Amino acid sequence: MTGTRVLVLNSGSSSVKYQLLDMRDSSRLAVGLVERIGEETSRLKHTPLVELANGGGARQEGRARELSGPIADHEAALKAVAEELGKDGLGLDSPELAAIGHRVVHGGKQFTEPTVIDERVLAEIERLIPVAPLHNPANLTGIRTAQALRPDLPQVAVFDTAFHTTMPESAARYAIDVETADEHRIRRYGFHGTSHAYVSRATAKLLGKAPEDVNVIVLHLGNGASASAVRAGRCVDTSMGLTPLEGLVMGTRSGDLDPAVIFHLARVGGMSMDEIDTLLNKKSGLIGLCGDNDMREIRRRVDEGDERARLAFDIYIHRLRKYIGAYYAVLGRVDAIAFTAGVGENAAPVREAAVAGLEGLGLAVDAERNSVRSDESRLVSPEGARVAVAVVPTDEELEIATQTYALVGSL
Asked: How far apart (Å, rounded) are the C-alpha atoms in residues 219 and 240?
């Protein structure tokens, strides 16, 4: 392997997010997004990242370029991305490009680590579409398009579910008939795995310890939200299940729910399965409770005395605190709790409320530290706290690039 660059692609049904990284120092060379693929109003935003003149490898954003107009499909989107990268001397034909890393949402039980993509891997990703109908088809489209553009280049799949495959069967199994579960591949897979992997390791580093010496509860709180219990660098439990619907209260998803609610809505409410699916995934959670799924707006409404917003916030925190307590019990010893993703990194009131009343478990935040906004990993717990409370910005793209580069370098 001669190149040191990795292109990371996250292909959605109508979008492609991308980053180009130089793995010599893990620096970003360019970032971008193509959205509304297949529409007349498609848009590509590309931002090159340029090295500062004072050296040290630091980079800052260059001037972003935006293109508007129809982009017919993913092939056209990636060709447009390649053209924009080429304008910065970073084209896909560069010998410096070592590999392309793809985010793939669902890898089932089979894929426990990053995997070089071949026809067998593609077939298995396709076979998993029934358990990831919204994500795996788009991921496949991105992979096949990238393969067509650079068939000579290693393409690597990094799976959202892989980090959670270390869960013991007692955590991964649902208590339903075993034969039925196995036939239909019903089990708890978990998601956001690249984030949980990155943040758990970064938290150990923040504490000055090796990952195998640390037990961490990771709270990935964005519009989608999940918690994980990580013992000595390995996931032993996580809140999302067969799908991303299970677990915490989220922006538009209900999280944990009595399954009989579904039967009730079908039998008594006369709702179809598709209507119930839409309700629980797109019209529930915070937006179902108060009409907003932006935590900043919810907090503004709370501060103005809005009772619906207050109830939504309280339900969100109640569920979050329950998972903290549950994973404390699962781990037995907790060295740190790490908040990450959009809400976890930026909403100080959420962090404060989540650990309020848990002082007996060694959990507390320092009000002054917690109020500080920063892009850096940091502790927000009081000096000398028994359990560290940390804010650790996630970096899923860097995690995908790191795993991709390590794999192709070992070939």
From this structure: 12
Q: Supply the angle between the helices 307-331 and 348-355 in degrees, to the nearest 10.
A: 60
Enumerate residues 6+ apart whose C-beta is below 8 A from 284. 252, 253, 254
Q: What is the DSSP string of 328-379?
A: HHHHSS-SEEEEEHHHHHH-HHHHHHHHTT-GGGT----HHHHH---SS-EE
CA count, 13 A, side-chain hemisphere, 378: 17
Q: How far apart are CA 329 and CA 350, in angstroms?
A: 22
Q: How far apart are CA 86 and CA 302, in angstroms?
A: 48
388-391, strands of its sheet edge to edge: 234-238, 225-231, 215-221, 336-340, 388-391, 378-379
pLDDT per residue as tens, the chain (411 positions): 678 999 999 988 788 899 999 999 999 999 999 988 888 899 999 999 875 444 445 556 678 899 899 999 888 998 899 999 999 889 888 899 999 999 999 998 889 999 999 999 999 999 988 887 878 888 998 899 899 989 999 999 999 999 999 999 999 999 999 999 999 999 999 999 999 999 999 999 999 999 999 999 999 999 999 999 999 999 999 999 999 999 999 999 999 999 999 999 999 999 999 999 999 999 999 999 999 999 999 999 999 999 999 999 999 999 999 999 999 999 999 999 999 999 999 999 999 999 999 999 999 999 999 999 999 999 999 999 999 999 999 999 999 999 999 999 876
Contact 243, 161 (CB under 8 A): no
The sign of the torsion formed by the CA atoms of 126, 132, 137, 142 equals: negative
Catalytic residues: 160
Q: How far apart are CA 301 and CA 306, in angstroms?
A: 5
Question: Three-state SS across 91-131?
Answer: CCCCCCEEEEEEEECCCCCCCCCCEECCHHHHHHHHHCHHH
Cα 281 from Cα 255, distance rounded (Å)? 9
Distance CA 178, CA 176 (A): 6
Distance between CA atoms of residues 284 and 276, nearest Å:
10
Q: d(Cα 198, Cα 168) in Å, to the nearest integer?
A: 21
Q: Which one-letter amino acid corresponds to residue 84?
A: E
Count of Cβ atoms closer than 10 Å to residue 332 Cβ? 9
Owner of token pair 């990636």: 78
pTM of model > 0.85 = yes
